[in-house]
Write a structure and sequence with these properties.
49% of the residues lie in helices and 9% in strands. It has helices spanning 43-74, 93-119, 126-131, 145-161, 165-172, 183-188; strands spanning 77-80, 87-90, 133-137, 190-194. A hairpin with a 6-residue loop joins β1 (77-80) and β2. α2 crosses α4 and α4 (145-161) packs across α5 (165-172). The longest helix is centred in the N-terminal third of the chain and has 32 residues, at 43-74. The chain is elongated. The chain starts with 42 loop residues before the first helix and ends with a strand.
């Protein structure tokens, strides 16, 4: 009398996937994923998205800086003493004030841009839209909201201001991190997922 074959898939075929969904940060086909099974964005996609966003922000920044700079230059009055030939100028503090104003403009543009786009329901800046990547909350998988988006931006800014080295480490961190997170992602408990892996 022959024995019945054991239950399960025929030899050489895989069985059904285990119950409970994909493991958090497991990764199909060698790709790390989030708790919802979505592939995390590659570092190079994040870099390209940042470059696109940088160009978009640079245009209004440089236009406003030029306008303010021209105004500051026009406020400088120079006179040359005919007897000594020495030229003296007044109003040079306008350039320092111009520098402070342009830094303030950069700060405001940056926070409005990144907090608005990353904190929105969509979770994408224009650069992320082009690269088809998205910022999501690590715990819920949904939008991070404006509070976490602001925290993300402030941490990235502070790390960049600190002699640039911490900013470089922050930007490179996804290359060796299991969750492909930057330090500012870790501070806000956010992930960047790939919508078109």
């Amino acid at each position: 009398m022959s024995q019945a074959p054991p239950p399960g898939p025929p030899p050489g075929q895989a069985g059904p996937p285990p119950a409970g969904g994909p493991p958090a940060y497991g990764g199909g086909a060698g790709q790390p994923t989030d708790a919802q099974g979505r592939v995390l964005a590659h570092w190079w996609k994040r870099v390209v998205a940042s470059l696109i966003d940088g160009v978009i922000l640079a245009v209004p920044y440089y236009i406003l800086t030029a306008i303010i700079g021209i105004g500051a230059a026009n406020s400088v009055k120079c006179e040359t003493d005919v007897t000594t030939g020495i030229t003296s100028c007044n109003g040079g503090t306008g350039f320092f004030v111009t520098f402070l104003i342009t830094m303030l403009i950069f700060f405001i543009l940056g926070i409005v841009y990144f907090v608005y786009f990353n904190g929105s329901e969509r979770g994408q800046t224009p650069g992320k839209m082009v690269m088809k990547i998205q910022v999501r909350d690590e715990a819920t998988g949904g939008p991070i909201g404006y509070g976490k988006a602001a925290l993300r931006w402030v941490v990235a800014l502070v790390l960049s201001i600190l002699c640039y080295i911490p900013g470089i480490v922050d930007a490179l961190f996804p290359l060796w991190d299991a969750k492909r997170q930057t330090l500012h992602d870790k501070a806000a408990n956010s992930l960047v997922i790939d919508l078109n892996p």
